[in-house]
Specification:
single chain, 501 residues, 24 helices
Length: 501
């Protein structure tokens, strides 16, 4: 009992000592926090945002009541475009220091960019209750018309007045770029207007602005699908399933797109291996699976056309595929230019030079600024002129993509047939001699790679006048030039379909 009473007598003294110790530690924490804050400010002034952020973290860990550290960390977050992280820090500043006008104004501006008008207005009015502030006054005046524009745009969307809705939402999104709802509304309007790329551009930021936004990824995937870019569609739907593997809509769309992409890839693989028969089968399977998406069907039909051309067996099948691609497009669709270029190529490969020129002129009527088109038309006209004089391919009866052994074989057969010794009548003998010389000339040009290049570019290497005209072409295989063609889907730039033979 005596020992216990002695201990109880010393408790007040122990408590005083404990308080003094804790105050000392707390004081040291404050000093340490200020040191971290100062270092962070130095790094921020030097533009070293990540390093400054580390110092502000340390300052807050040392002293969670250091409102200046919270404020500076929020400033860095905003500089790094991390608005979602900045807002909690500004909220904490307001709890710790409600009279910090600069922080309240900054939070009001942040809420304004997020389109949270009521909260932003509350902050601006709190600033104005302390003192006059031109920026806060201006922002309060802006909020009412912005609210009105959002309500009006929503009503216009329901009424189907999409152009007017876009105009109003443009005015809203400019000062409120971090609001997912406003962007989704405008994306809906763009989608109804057929401006699918612009709809995608609005939906993309919403995947950051709204956490786990599976619907945005689904919508973007569907829009890319409508644009004919099935590979990009597959990429977007995979992002949806990463967020939620059990999302039924995403999984259903994923299965559909994956099958189509797999079939397309097999077709391209077969083409790369020069297995054009199997490539055609795969592309025809794509058309069976999906015939409603115009950009995709046009691309696939042109691929089928290309395969038939490279097979070199069925001129009419190649033309049929190309013409089907043109017919799939709406009238005056700019994508028809590429289709006519393909058709011109098919005609040229089979010696239909006037038709090739006509086709390229149709392409010019669709889009006279199509890359490389004027040069291709110029070459086609040159080849037409050349064919009216002499066509070595026609003389030997071979296709323009004939291999050297085919050319030699055709030459030997014709040379035996038209050798002058086979004819006894003088008139027939002279005619045969002339024919025999033409056959020999054709063999000389087409069996020599350099001469053949010149001829394919529209210059007869055996014609002195043509040689003086200059120009040695280097585009054997594609008489209209090297380089791919860009096929633009939907509105405004983006995906390119390269169709080079």
């Amino acid at each position: 009992m005596k020992v216990n009473s002695q201990i109880l007598a010393h408790i007040p003294i122990l408590l005083v000592i404990s308080d003094l110790f804790l105050e000392g530690v707390y004081g040291l924490d404050k000093v340490e926090s200020k040191r971290f804050l100062s270092k962070g400010n130095q790094l921020l002034n030097a533009g070293q945002l990540a390093d400054a952020l580390t110092q502000y973290h340390a300052a807050i860990d040392a002293d969670s009541s250091n409102y200046q550290a919270f404020y500076m960390r929020a400033t860095v977050y905003l500089a790094m475009s991390k608005a979602r992280a900045a807002l909690p820090d500004l909220n904490e500043v307001m709890k710790l220091q409600p009279t910090f006008v600069k922080a309240r104004l900054q939070r009001g501006n942040l809420l304004m960019k997020m389109g949270r008008f009521n909260e932003a207005q509350t902050d601006y009015e709190a600033v104005l209750s302390v003192a006059d502030n031109a920026e806060a006054t201006k922002k309060v005046e802006e909020i009412r018309p912005l609210r009105r524009n959002v309500n009006h745009a929503t009503a216009l969307l329901k009424q189907g007045q999409f152009h007017q809705a876009v105009d109003l939402l443009n005015q809203v999104i400019e000062p409120c770029p971090w609001n997912a709802d406003f962007r989704e509304l405008r994306a809906t309007a763009f989608e109804h207007l057929g401006e699918l790329r612009r709809a995608i551009n609005d939906l993309k930021p919403t995947t950051i602005l709204r956490l786990d936004n599976t619907q945005a990824y689904l919508r973007m995937s569907v829009l890319w699908y409508k644009l004919g870019d099935v590979a990009q569609s597959l990429e977007e739907i995979r992002e949806c399933l990463k967020l939620d593997p059990d999302q039924k809509e995403c999984y259903g769309h994923y299965k559909k797109v994956k099958k189509l992409v797999k079939t397309m890839e097999k077709g391209k693989k077969f083409m790369a291996e020069n297995n054009f028969v199997d490539a055609i089968k795969r592309y025809e399977t794509v058309l069976e699976k999906e015939s409603a998406i115009i950009p995709l069907t046009v691309e696939v039909k042109l691929k089928i056309c290309e395969c038939h051309m490279k097979l070199g067996k069925d001129f009419f099948a190649a033309l049929d595929a190309c013409y089907k691609a043109v017919r799939a497009l709406p009238p005056k669709d700019p994508r028809a230019a590429l289709c006519y270029i393909y058709i011109a190529y098919v005609h040229e490969r089979h010696g239909k030079y006037q038709r090739a020129v006509d086709d390229l002129q149709k392409a010019m009527q669709v889009d006279d600024n199509y890359p490389g088109l004027q040069e291709k038309l110029k070459k086609a006209k040159k080849m037409l002129k050349q064919s009216q004089k002499k066509d070595y391919y026609k003389i030997l009866g071979v296709a323009r993509n004939a291999k050297k052994q085919e050319i030699i074989k055709a030459y030997r057969k014709l040379a035996r047939q038209w050798h002058p010794d086979n004819f006894k009548d003088e008139k027939e003998k002279k005619s045969a001699e002339k024919k025999f010389i033409e056959i020999a000339s054709a063999k000389e040009v087409l069996s020599d790679p350099e001469k053949r290049k010149q001829f394919d570019a529209g210059v007869d290497p055996l014609d002195p006048e043509a040689q003086q005209g200059g120009g040695h072409g280097h585009h054997h295989g594609n008489p209209f030039g090297g380089g791919g063609f860009s096929f633009h889907y939907g509105g405004g730039g983006g995906h390119d379909f390269h169709g080079e033979f």
